[in-house]
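Support request, please re-run this one:
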Amino acid sequence: MTRLDLVEAAADNRKKVEMTLATAKKGKALTLTEVATYADLPASTAKRHLDQLVAIGRVHVETYGSFNIYQLNGVGAYTDKIHLSEDHMLLVDALTNRSGTPYIRLKESRRVHDGWKEIGAIVIGPEKVDELLEKLKTIRSNIARSKN
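Re-run finished. Output below.
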């Protein structure tokens, strides 16, 4: 198998993982075992692709006790990327949790040798969005003043 064959196989596997999440019942999150089973992939392969999809903002992951559940981002949600540098980005999402409560997530990712790695995330509930926006306006104003 050539390097190109391996790259194409990896891309096909990533598409299988995304399609598995995309065709899940609306709003249904899946466990790693479910994704691997439905995509007909070994769990280790599914996990590697899920980690990459989480890092680039295509998939949202939540931890419940000792297991994670995965859900495709983008269904009725706002997602955008702010490229801080060539190797550093911030993802901004408007999501809804399993109980239907909306929230904003800011997620930081850095490029590593084999793709993107999630550094961390902050979740902001709807009751704090206005406060955050006011703080950002103040910061923007302070930055503008400091340039003069």
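The helical segments are 3-22, 32-39, 43-55, 129-147. Strands lie at 30-31, 59-64, 67-72, 78-85, 88-96, 102-112, 115-124.
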